[in-house]
């Protein structure tokens, strides 16, 4: 395996203006040696997919606290597919009611992290998913 | 279709993949760069540098829009520092470049320095060449925040824009060597803040000193890659990048500088210096790699041990390693 840093995009879609959680994750991934592209607040699904494409990231993390995940996540997934980026694992973090998690996973989301998830667990999940997708389909 | 052909035909995903290969030092990247070389040499390469927090990303955001208004396309490389502890990096330039999203004529890529000093990543020059071959009319490179050193950008671009902000030091700071000397265009950003006029005044007097020194000293001593050329008077502009004020004037100034470079033959000069830097740095790396391959780890460790024990010295050790090569 190469020792090149994993590149990850952390994105905040929609209108909620709280990105403390996203920043904590950015920091945790940084401390694990990853290169983390942070988009900042209020991104559209189109902007997120474009950033993922331009930056050639190996994983995308979406932080949503607004409750609009059932609208925003499917759009991000569709946009990624349109840009031929559907092989990139997508993670969702934030306030996601338990009853919505299954639907998100069905859309192809790799994992959903709620409040209280340990950052170490998130880092390990991201690293694991990236290594799995690198071992499988590479182009 | 080969990756190079895809890049030339405007495939953004191929472009993004190629930049990753280059950053990662992938074996395929040299062949790719070799194939692309014949397609380059058309873009105007612009560097934007300055201390942390002076507004480089915000200015590049506004500048890229100004480039687009002229009908030109633009590729942006934004460099941020790699953590010396974890090897990771936070690449946050997209935050201030959100206005550039959704435009096919713009490509924006963040790069981490990955241990390189001097304000750029090792792969930045090659990445700029790829954007050039991909057909972007202008390629803008934003350095990490640099201060009195970090002048590597000048050897890698055609036009260097140095950004200052009010409150960034007195007139002694302004005459120190380094970053101010590499400016082709000087910009005081955040010109709406108190102290902007004072900063401007300091810079103006510094520039005047520099220009008189140049005209007295004449050309021969200033043949280095990063010295601005005689015959060009460095303009001092003011901007409020956040609201786009003064940015069109900066754009105009970039065009004028490019015309000057072409007209004076200085562009050829800078292209040659740029290519020389690329060749020399590759050569240095290859020779070093060959040395490392030929000298066994045991021999190296033994020499190191002897140096520590003061039985030999670093200078004689290097001499004897060099003899191994011949």
Secondary-structure topology with pairs:
The complex is a heterodimer of chains A (139) and B (326).
Chain A: E1 7-11, H1 20-31, E2 35-38, H2 45-55, E3 59-64, H3 69-82, E4 90-94, H4 98-106, E5 111-113, H5 119-135
Parallel strand pairs in A: 1-2, 1-3, 3-4, 4-5
Helix pairs in contact in A: 1-5, 2-3
Chain B: H1 3-8, H2 12-23, H3 27-37, E1 44-50, H4 56-69, E2 74-80, E3 89-91, H5 93-96, E4 106-112, H6 124-133, E5 138-142, E6 159-164, H7 171-175, E7 185-188, H8 196-217, E8 236-238, H9 247-264, H10 266-294, H11 297-308, H12 314-325
Task: Describe the 3D structure.
The complex is a heterodimer of chains A (139) and B (326). Chain A is α/β, with parallel strands linked by helices. Chain A has a single domain, classed as Cobalamin-binding domain (Rossmann fold, 3-Layer(aba) Sandwich), CATH 3.40.50.280. Chain A has five helices and five strands. In chain A, strands 2-1-3-4-5 form a five-stranded parallel sheet, sandwiched between helices. In chain A, strand 1, helix 1 and strand 2 form a beta-alpha-beta unit. The model of chain A has no long low-confidence stretch (mean pLDDT 92). With 326 residues, chain B is of the alpha/beta class. Chain B has three domains: 39 residues, no CATH class; 225 residues, P-loop containing nucleotide triphosphate hydrolases (Rossmann fold); 44 residues, no CATH class. In chain B, helix 2 runs antiparallel to helix 6 and helix 4 crosses helix 9. Chain B is globular. Chains A and B meet through helix 1, strand 2 and helix 2 of A and helix 2, strand 3, helix 5 and strand 4 of B.
Shape of chain B: globular
- What is the tally of beta strands of chain B? 8
Approximate strand percentage of chain A: 15-25%
What count of domains describes the coordinates of chain A? Answer: 1
Say what the CATH topology of chain A is.
Rossmann fold
Low-confidence stretches of chain B: 212-225
- Uncertain residue ranges of chain A: none
Largest interface: A-B, 32 and 30 residues
Report the β-strand fraction of chain B as a percent range.
Answer: 5-15%
Task: Tell me the strand order in the biggest sheet of chain B.
Answer: 4-2-5-1-6-7-8
Q: What is the CATH class name of chain A?
A: Alpha Beta
Multimeric status of the protein: heterodimer
The secondary structure category of chain A is alpha/beta
Summarize the amount of helix of chain A as a percent range. Answer: 40-55%
Main sheet record of chain A: 5 strands, parallel
Radius of gyration of chain B, taken over Cα atoms and rounded to an integer in Å? 22 Å
CATH topology of the largest domain in chain B: Rossmann fold
CATH architecture field of chain A? 3-Layer(aba) Sandwich
CATH 4th-level superfamily of the largest domain in chain B: P-loop containing nucleotide triphosphate hydrolases
- Corresponding CATH superfamily of chain A: Cobalamin-binding domain
Helix vs. strand class of chain B = alpha/beta
